[in-house]
Amino acid sequence: MSSSKDVRAITIACLQFEPRIGEVEANLDALDRLARAAAAQGAELIVAPELADSGYVFADRAELSRLAAPIPSGAPSRRLEGLARELGVHIVSGLAEARAGRFHNSAALFGPDGFIGAYRKLHLWDGETTVFDRSPPEAPVFDTALGRIALAVCYDGWFPELFRRYALAGAQVVAVPTNWVPMPGQPEDASAMANILHQAAAHSNGLIIACADRVGVERGQPFIGRSVIVDATGFLLAGPASADAEEILLARATPGAAAATRQVTPRNNVLSDRREDAYGPGFGPTDPDAAPNADDKTSQTAGEVT
To answer: Is the peptide bond preceding residue 255 cis, with omega within 30 degrees of 0?
Structure first.
Protein backbone atom coordinates (compact mmCIF):
# COMPACT_ATOMS: atom_id res chain seq x y z
CA MET A 1 0.00 0.00 0.00
CA SER A 2 1.34 3.40 -0.89
CA SER A 3 1.71 6.23 1.60
CA SER A 4 -1.01 8.86 1.64
CA LYS A 5 1.81 11.38 1.20
CA ASP A 6 2.70 9.99 -2.23
CA VAL A 7 1.98 12.43 -5.04
CA ARG A 8 0.67 10.43 -7.98
CA ALA A 9 -2.07 11.33 -10.41
CA ILE A 10 -4.89 8.82 -10.74
CA THR A 11 -7.74 8.54 -13.23
CA ILE A 12 -11.23 8.84 -11.75
CA ALA A 13 -14.40 7.83 -13.58
CA CYS A 14 -18.02 8.61 -12.77
CA LEU A 15 -20.62 6.34 -14.34
CA GLN A 16 -23.89 8.11 -15.15
CA PHE A 17 -26.74 5.80 -16.16
CA GLU A 18 -30.36 4.90 -15.39
CA PRO A 19 -30.89 2.12 -12.83
CA ARG A 20 -34.43 0.72 -12.91
CA ILE A 21 -36.39 -0.07 -9.78
CA GLY A 22 -36.32 -3.75 -8.91
CA GLU A 23 -34.13 -4.83 -11.85
CA VAL A 24 -31.04 -5.71 -9.83
CA GLU A 25 -29.33 -7.98 -12.34
CA ALA A 26 -29.94 -5.60 -15.26
CA ASN A 27 -28.69 -2.67 -13.20
CA LEU A 28 -25.52 -4.53 -12.27
CA ASP A 29 -25.09 -5.52 -15.91
CA ALA A 30 -25.18 -1.82 -16.89
CA LEU A 31 -22.70 -0.94 -14.14
CA ASP A 32 -20.43 -3.79 -15.21
CA ARG A 33 -20.51 -2.68 -18.86
CA LEU A 34 -19.70 0.94 -18.05
CA ALA A 35 -17.03 0.02 -15.48
CA ARG A 36 -15.25 -2.13 -18.06
CA ALA A 37 -15.37 0.72 -20.57
CA ALA A 38 -13.99 3.14 -17.97
CA ALA A 39 -11.20 0.74 -16.97
CA ALA A 40 -10.29 0.32 -20.63
CA GLN A 41 -9.74 4.09 -20.70
CA GLY A 42 -7.43 3.94 -17.69
CA ALA A 43 -9.83 4.53 -14.80
CA GLU A 44 -8.47 3.44 -11.42
CA LEU A 45 -11.29 4.74 -9.19
CA ILE A 46 -14.79 4.18 -10.58
CA VAL A 47 -17.86 5.70 -8.94
CA ALA A 48 -21.43 4.55 -9.66
CA PRO A 49 -24.74 6.17 -8.63
CA GLU A 50 -26.71 5.89 -5.40
CA LEU A 51 -28.72 2.66 -5.06
CA ALA A 52 -27.25 1.56 -8.37
CA ASP A 53 -28.29 -2.04 -7.75
CA SER A 54 -31.92 -1.62 -6.71
CA GLY A 55 -33.24 1.62 -8.13
CA TYR A 56 -34.48 4.43 -5.91
CA VAL A 57 -38.24 4.99 -5.55
CA PHE A 58 -39.44 2.13 -3.36
CA ALA A 59 -43.18 1.63 -3.01
CA ASP A 60 -42.75 0.69 0.63
CA ARG A 61 -40.39 -0.94 3.10
CA ALA A 62 -41.55 -4.38 2.02
CA GLU A 63 -40.31 -3.74 -1.51
CA LEU A 64 -36.99 -2.50 -0.16
CA SER A 65 -36.69 -5.63 1.99
CA ARG A 66 -36.98 -7.80 -1.13
CA LEU A 67 -34.25 -5.87 -2.95
CA ALA A 68 -31.72 -5.06 -0.21
CA ALA A 69 -28.76 -7.35 0.47
CA PRO A 70 -25.97 -7.54 3.04
CA ILE A 71 -22.63 -5.82 2.44
CA PRO A 72 -20.23 -7.45 1.61
CA SER A 73 -21.81 -10.93 1.60
CA GLY A 74 -24.81 -10.16 -0.63
CA ALA A 75 -24.93 -10.91 -4.33
CA PRO A 76 -24.47 -7.28 -5.53
CA SER A 77 -21.42 -6.81 -3.30
CA ARG A 78 -19.91 -10.10 -4.40
CA ARG A 79 -20.36 -9.18 -8.04
CA LEU A 80 -18.76 -5.75 -7.59
CA GLU A 81 -15.94 -7.22 -5.53
CA GLY A 82 -15.24 -9.73 -8.29
CA LEU A 83 -15.33 -6.98 -10.91
CA ALA A 84 -12.86 -4.82 -8.98
CA ARG A 85 -10.52 -7.78 -8.57
CA GLU A 86 -10.78 -8.72 -12.25
CA LEU A 87 -10.18 -5.20 -13.54
CA GLY A 88 -7.61 -4.27 -10.89
CA VAL A 89 -9.50 -1.10 -9.97
CA HIS A 90 -11.32 0.51 -7.06
CA ILE A 91 -15.12 0.70 -7.35
CA VAL A 92 -17.54 2.73 -5.24
CA SER A 93 -21.23 2.05 -5.66
CA GLY A 94 -24.43 2.94 -3.91
CA LEU A 95 -26.21 -0.20 -2.65
CA ALA A 96 -29.41 -1.04 -0.80
CA GLU A 97 -28.11 -2.72 2.35
CA ALA A 98 -29.84 -5.17 4.66
CA ARG A 99 -28.07 -5.26 8.01
CA ALA A 100 -29.27 -7.07 11.11
CA GLY A 101 -32.93 -6.42 10.43
CA ARG A 102 -32.36 -2.82 9.39
CA PHE A 103 -32.04 -1.21 5.97
CA HIS A 104 -29.53 1.43 4.92
CA ASN A 105 -28.90 3.56 1.87
CA SER A 106 -25.22 2.68 1.68
CA ALA A 107 -22.08 3.03 -0.39
CA ALA A 108 -19.41 0.36 -0.58
CA LEU A 109 -15.77 0.51 -1.62
CA PHE A 110 -14.09 -2.43 -3.34
CA GLY A 111 -10.49 -2.71 -4.50
CA PRO A 112 -8.20 -5.09 -6.38
CA ASP A 113 -7.77 -7.09 -3.17
CA GLY A 114 -11.47 -7.21 -2.30
CA PHE A 115 -13.94 -5.39 -0.08
CA ILE A 116 -12.50 -2.36 1.72
CA GLY A 117 -15.39 -0.80 3.60
CA ALA A 118 -18.85 0.72 3.62
CA TYR A 119 -20.56 3.97 4.56
CA ARG A 120 -24.23 4.37 5.47
CA LYS A 121 -25.93 7.59 4.37
CA LEU A 122 -26.25 9.93 7.32
CA HIS A 123 -28.85 12.33 5.92
CA LEU A 124 -31.96 10.69 4.46
CA TRP A 125 -33.96 12.58 1.83
CA ASP A 126 -37.75 12.81 1.68
CA GLY A 127 -39.31 9.38 1.02
CA GLU A 128 -36.11 7.62 2.11
CA THR A 129 -37.12 8.41 5.68
CA THR A 130 -40.14 6.09 5.33
CA VAL A 131 -38.21 2.99 4.22
CA PHE A 132 -34.60 3.28 5.44
CA ASP A 133 -33.37 3.23 9.02
CA ARG A 134 -31.34 5.98 10.61
CA SER A 135 -27.68 5.08 10.24
CA PRO A 136 -25.08 5.02 13.01
CA PRO A 137 -22.97 8.21 13.27
CA GLU A 138 -19.98 6.84 11.38
CA ALA A 139 -17.86 8.62 8.77
CA PRO A 140 -14.89 6.38 7.95
CA VAL A 141 -11.86 7.29 5.87
CA PHE A 142 -10.16 4.40 4.10
CA ASP A 143 -6.44 4.17 3.37
CA THR A 144 -6.03 2.70 -0.12
CA ALA A 145 -3.33 2.36 -2.74
CA LEU A 146 -4.87 5.39 -4.49
CA GLY A 147 -4.97 7.64 -1.44
CA ARG A 148 -7.29 8.27 1.49
CA ILE A 149 -10.86 7.84 0.30
CA ALA A 150 -14.09 8.79 2.07
CA LEU A 151 -17.67 8.22 0.95
CA ALA A 152 -20.85 10.31 0.99
CA VAL A 153 -24.27 9.80 -0.59
CA CYS A 154 -26.43 12.43 -2.32
CA TYR A 155 -28.15 14.65 0.32
CA ASP A 156 -25.03 14.37 2.51
CA GLY A 157 -23.63 17.06 0.18
CA TRP A 158 -25.95 19.62 1.75
CA PHE A 159 -24.10 19.30 5.06
CA PRO A 160 -20.65 20.95 5.04
CA GLU A 161 -19.90 19.47 8.46
CA LEU A 162 -19.38 16.02 6.92
CA PHE A 163 -16.82 17.22 4.37
CA ARG A 164 -15.00 19.25 7.01
CA ARG A 165 -14.87 16.18 9.21
CA TYR A 166 -13.41 14.18 6.34
CA ALA A 167 -10.77 16.83 5.66
CA LEU A 168 -9.79 16.92 9.33
CA ALA A 169 -9.52 13.11 9.31
CA GLY A 170 -7.03 13.28 6.44
CA ALA A 171 -9.27 12.35 3.50
CA GLN A 172 -8.02 13.29 0.04
CA VAL A 173 -10.87 12.04 -2.16
CA VAL A 174 -14.60 11.83 -1.46
CA ALA A 175 -16.59 9.53 -3.75
CA VAL A 176 -20.29 10.44 -3.90
CA PRO A 177 -22.87 8.06 -5.36
CA THR A 178 -25.96 10.22 -5.84
CA ASN A 179 -29.51 10.46 -7.20
CA TRP A 180 -29.92 14.24 -7.42
CA VAL A 181 -33.42 15.57 -8.05
CA PRO A 182 -34.51 19.06 -9.18
CA MET A 183 -34.32 21.71 -6.46
CA PRO A 184 -37.33 23.96 -5.79
CA GLY A 185 -36.90 27.40 -7.33
CA GLN A 186 -33.94 26.42 -9.50
CA PRO A 187 -33.73 28.66 -12.61
CA GLU A 188 -33.39 26.63 -15.80
CA ASP A 189 -30.19 28.39 -16.83
CA ALA A 190 -28.49 28.10 -13.42
CA SER A 191 -25.84 25.57 -12.43
CA ALA A 192 -27.26 22.64 -10.49
CA MET A 193 -27.31 23.45 -6.78
CA ALA A 194 -25.70 20.07 -6.13
CA ASN A 195 -22.71 21.04 -8.27
CA ILE A 196 -22.37 24.40 -6.52
CA LEU A 197 -22.41 22.73 -3.10
CA HIS A 198 -19.80 20.12 -3.99
CA GLN A 199 -17.52 22.66 -5.63
CA ALA A 200 -17.75 24.74 -2.45
CA ALA A 201 -17.04 21.69 -0.28
CA ALA A 202 -14.03 20.78 -2.41
CA HIS A 203 -12.59 24.30 -2.32
CA SER A 204 -13.17 25.02 1.36
CA ASN A 205 -11.73 21.68 2.49
CA GLY A 206 -9.11 20.83 -0.13
CA LEU A 207 -10.85 17.63 -1.22
CA ILE A 208 -11.20 15.95 -4.61
CA ILE A 209 -14.90 15.10 -4.97
CA ALA A 210 -16.34 12.70 -7.57
CA CYS A 211 -20.14 12.70 -7.89
CA ALA A 212 -21.82 9.99 -10.00
CA ASP A 213 -25.49 10.78 -10.60
CA ARG A 214 -28.24 8.87 -12.35
CA VAL A 215 -30.64 9.98 -15.09
CA GLY A 216 -34.20 9.16 -16.09
CA VAL A 217 -37.62 9.27 -14.45
CA GLU A 218 -38.62 6.58 -11.96
CA ARG A 219 -42.22 6.30 -10.76
CA GLY A 220 -42.74 9.96 -11.59
CA GLN A 221 -39.51 11.19 -9.95
CA PRO A 222 -37.11 12.91 -12.38
CA PHE A 223 -33.34 12.89 -11.84
CA ILE A 224 -31.02 15.60 -13.12
CA GLY A 225 -27.79 13.88 -14.17
CA ARG A 226 -25.04 16.53 -14.23
CA SER A 227 -22.37 14.27 -12.70
CA VAL A 228 -19.10 16.07 -11.90
CA ILE A 229 -15.51 15.46 -10.85
CA VAL A 230 -14.20 18.39 -8.82
CA ASP A 231 -10.56 19.20 -8.07
CA ALA A 232 -9.44 20.06 -4.54
CA THR A 233 -9.31 23.68 -5.69
CA GLY A 234 -13.07 23.58 -6.23
CA PHE A 235 -12.84 23.87 -10.00
CA LEU A 236 -14.31 21.24 -12.30
CA LEU A 237 -12.05 18.57 -13.75
CA ALA A 238 -14.88 16.91 -15.70
CA GLY A 239 -18.56 17.66 -16.27
CA PRO A 240 -21.18 18.59 -15.65
CA ALA A 241 -22.45 15.62 -17.62
CA SER A 242 -25.69 15.87 -19.54
CA ALA A 243 -29.08 15.96 -17.83
CA ASP A 244 -30.50 12.88 -19.48
CA ALA A 245 -27.89 10.64 -21.12
CA GLU A 246 -25.71 7.74 -20.11
CA GLU A 247 -22.10 8.97 -19.83
CA ILE A 248 -18.69 8.16 -18.44
CA LEU A 249 -16.84 11.14 -16.99
CA LEU A 250 -13.07 10.78 -16.75
CA ALA A 251 -10.51 13.03 -15.10
CA ARG A 252 -6.97 12.93 -13.76
CA ALA A 253 -6.44 14.11 -10.20
CA THR A 254 -3.67 13.90 -7.62
CA PRO A 255 -4.87 12.85 -4.15
CA GLY A 256 -1.47 13.43 -2.58
CA ALA A 257 -1.56 17.08 -3.65
CA ALA A 258 -5.00 17.81 -2.18
CA ALA A 259 -3.74 19.04 1.20
CA ALA A 260 -1.51 21.65 -0.46
CA THR A 261 -4.57 23.38 -1.92
CA ARG A 262 -5.70 24.24 1.61
CA GLN A 263 -2.79 26.70 1.82
CA VAL A 264 -4.63 29.42 -0.10
CA THR A 265 -1.99 32.10 0.64
CA PRO A 266 1.41 31.91 2.37
CA ARG A 267 -0.40 33.00 5.55
CA ASN A 268 -3.74 31.21 5.20
CA ASN A 269 -4.75 27.58 5.50
CA VAL A 270 -8.48 26.83 5.39
CA LEU A 271 -8.16 24.21 8.13
CA SER A 272 -5.61 25.66 10.52
CA ASP A 273 -7.21 29.14 10.31
CA ARG A 274 -10.43 27.86 11.87
CA ARG A 275 -11.51 29.88 14.94
CA GLU A 276 -12.71 27.15 17.25
CA ASP A 277 -12.77 29.67 20.10
CA ALA A 278 -15.62 31.42 18.28
CA TYR A 279 -17.72 28.54 16.93
CA GLY A 280 -16.64 25.38 18.70
CA PRO A 281 -14.30 22.50 17.91
CA GLY A 282 -13.90 20.72 14.61
CA PHE A 283 -15.67 17.56 13.58
CA GLY A 284 -14.06 14.23 14.35
CA PRO A 285 -10.37 13.26 14.45
CA THR A 286 -7.73 15.54 13.00
CA ASP A 287 -4.93 14.39 10.74
CA PRO A 288 -1.64 16.20 11.52
CA ASP A 289 -0.90 16.78 7.83
CA ALA A 290 -4.39 18.13 7.15
CA ALA A 291 -4.43 20.76 9.91
CA PRO A 292 -0.85 21.55 10.95
CA ASN A 293 -1.81 23.46 14.11
CA ALA A 294 -4.35 20.98 15.46
CA ASP A 295 -3.75 19.18 18.74
CA ASP A 296 -5.63 15.97 17.98
CA LYS A 297 -3.28 13.78 15.92
CA THR A 298 -5.51 10.72 15.50
CA SER A 299 -6.42 9.40 12.07
CA GLN A 300 -8.22 6.45 10.59
CA THR A 301 -7.13 3.48 8.53
CA ALA A 302 -8.93 1.12 6.20
CA GLY A 303 -11.93 -0.60 7.68
CA GLU A 304 -11.91 1.31 10.97
CA VAL A 305 -14.86 3.41 12.08
CA THR A 306 -14.63 6.56 14.13
So the answer is: no
Label each residue of 48-81 as H, E or C.
Answer: CCCCCCCCCCCCCHHHHHHHCECCCCCHHHHHHH
Helices assigned H by DSSP within 106-172: 160-168
| Half-sphere CA count of 235, side-chain side, radius 13 A | 4
- Ramachandran assignment for 33, one of left (phi > 0), alpha (psi -120 to 50 degrees), beta (any other): alpha
Structure confidence by residue, pLDDT tens digits, 79-114: 999 999 999 999 999 999 999 999 999 999 999 999
- Neighbour tally for 6: CB within 10 Å: 12
pLDDT, tens digit (0-9, with 9 covering 90-100), for 158-214: 999 999 999 999 999 999 999 999 999 989 889 999 999 999 999 999 999 999 999
Please give the positions annotated as active site: 50, 121, 154
Q: How far is CA 200 from the centre of its chain?
A: 15
In the chain the domains, ranked by start, together with CATH numbers, are 10-279 (3.60.110.10)
